[in-house]
Amino acid sequence: MTDITIVEVGPRDGLQNEARPISAAAKIELIDRLSACGFKRIEAASFVSPKWVPQMADGAAVMEGISRRPGTVYSALTPNLKGYEAARAAGADEVAIFGAASETFSQRNINASIAESLERFRPVAEAAKADGIPVRGYVSCIVVCPYEGAIAPDAVARVTAALFEMGCHEVSLGDTVGRGTPTSIGAMLEAVLDVAPASRLAGHYHDTNGRALESVAVSVAQGLQVFDSAIGGLGGCPYAPGAKGNLSTTKLANWCAENGHRTGLDMERLKQAENFVADLRRDLDAFPDDPA
Ligand code: HMG
Ligand code: MG
C-alpha cells in the first residue's frame, strides 16, 4: 500500500478556463469545501496578468476569504516577481513557477521563450527562498504541445533540471492537452528520472482522451506518489486549445482506493464538493470546452 498525495488544483487550473465570471464568494466556498475533504495541498489562486487570465484576477480576495485548515498548504501560481509579491502579500504558503518544454507554448502562455522564462523565474525562486516560501515548478507539454506536436523527452528533462537547480522542492509534469499514453509518458519519465528522483516529481495529467489514469498508473509504477487533479474534472488551459478537463479528483481517489493506495481523503465530502461544482456549472449555464 502506497500513500498518494492528491494536489487539488480545481480552484486554479479548473476555474481559470471558465469564460463566464465566477464570484470570489463561490471560489471561496469551493476551497473551503475542499479543505474539509482533508486535502493537504490545494492550489487556490493564480497571480498572473488579469489581461491574460481575467478569471484569476481576484486571487487576493479569494486567499483572504478562505478558512485555512491547519496543515493544508494553499498555493498560488506566480509567473514573475510582480505575481510573487502579490502571492506573498496574500499569504500563499507555496508559490509555483510554470515553464514548458515547448517553445511555442511557452510564448503563447507566458510571452517568453523557454530560456527567457527561466531567467524570469530565477528571481522569483530567490525571493521565495529568502522569505522561506517553498517553490513548486511546472513543466507543461511533457509529451505533446498543442502547437508543435510531439515533444522530445530530453526537452522535458532539461527544463525539469533547470527548475530543480533554481531550488524548486518539486516539479509537476504537465500533460497539458491530455494526450499522454503509457508509452509516451513512460518514455518521458525515463528521461526525467535521470535528472530527478521520483520522490520529487508530481504527475499533472489532463484527461482529454480519458487516459489520464493510465498515465497515473505508469507513474506510480515508476515511484511517483504525488498527482494533481481537479474536483469535478474542471479545467483546461486558456492557451492550450483542445485541453479539456483535468483528471477528476474523485476518479483519481477512487482509482487509488481500488488499487490499495491511501489518499486520506473523506470520500463523502469529496462527493459533496463535486455536487457543489456540478451546481456551479449549472448556474453558469455554459461550460465551453475551448473559450480561447
Ligand atoms: P507580458 O504581457 O509579457 O508581461 O505577460 P509584462 O511584464 O509586459 O506586463 C504586461 C502587463 O501585465 C502590465 O500591465 C503588467 O503590470 C501586468 P499594464 O502596464 O499593461 O497595465 N502584469 C501583471 N499583473 C498582475 N500580475 C502579474 C503581472 N505580470 C505582469 N503577475 C505574463 C507576461 C507572464 C504576465 C502573462 O503572459 C501571463 O500572465 N501569463 C499567464 C498565463 C496563465 O496563467 N496561463 C495558465 C496557467 S499555466 C497552466 O495552466 C498549465 C499548468 O496547469 C500545467 C499544465 O497543465 O501543463 C500549470
Ligand atoms: Mg494544467
UniProtKB/TrEMBL annotation:
Query: Molecular function terms in GO for this entry?
Result: hydroxymethylglutaryl-CoA lyase activity; metal ion binding
Q: Which UniProt keywords apply?
A: Lyase, Metal-binding
Does the entry feature the keyword Membrane, yes or no? no
Sorted alphabetically, which PROSITE patterns does this protein's record hold?
A: PYR_CT
- Which InterPro entries does the UniProt record give? Aldolase_TIM, HMGL, PYR_CT
**Pyruvate carboxyltransferase domain sequence ranges:** 4-271
Q: Does the keyword Cytoplasm apply?
A: no
Q: Which GO terms describe its biological process?
A: ketone body biosynthetic process; L-leucine catabolic process
* Protein family according to the UniProt entry: Belongs to the HMG-CoA lyase family.
Annotated protein name in UniProt: Hydroxymethylglutaryl-CoA lyase
Q: Which species?
A: Thermohalobaculum xanthum
